[in-house]
Amino acid sequence: MAEKNIELKVPDYLREPLEAAQARLAVFEKELEKRLKDLAREWAPLADRLLKELAGLRARVVGAMGIASRDQLDEMSKDLARLARQLDRAAKPAKPGSARNGAKKATLEA
User: Fold this and answer.
1) Per residue in 17-46, is it b (16+ CB within 10 Å) or e — as a string?
2) Which residue among 50, 57, 97, 99 has its CA within the 20 to 30 Å range from the CA of 42?
């Protein structure tokens, strides 16, 4: 947190308890930061394992229901696009001088 340097006029009889409370607060914040780092370190492997198990469970449910996963749909879409391009190329009439007619042209000239 951003510390602000604000000078407040505090009566002398409150200055000592206030400084002690600020010192305790600083110690508490340091301990809290340390504990949070420890907890994050402890929970990180568990969180990773849970995410992997969840992904595996989701894959099993999708497979059991017979529904295609997002990755499978993407792969099928790519395959369909590739096949459509091949069909488009096969359906186009060959242009004179193209590679398809090149073999015929060579035999006619010979």
Assistant:
1) eeeeeeeeeeeeeeeeeeeeeeeeeeeeee
2) 57
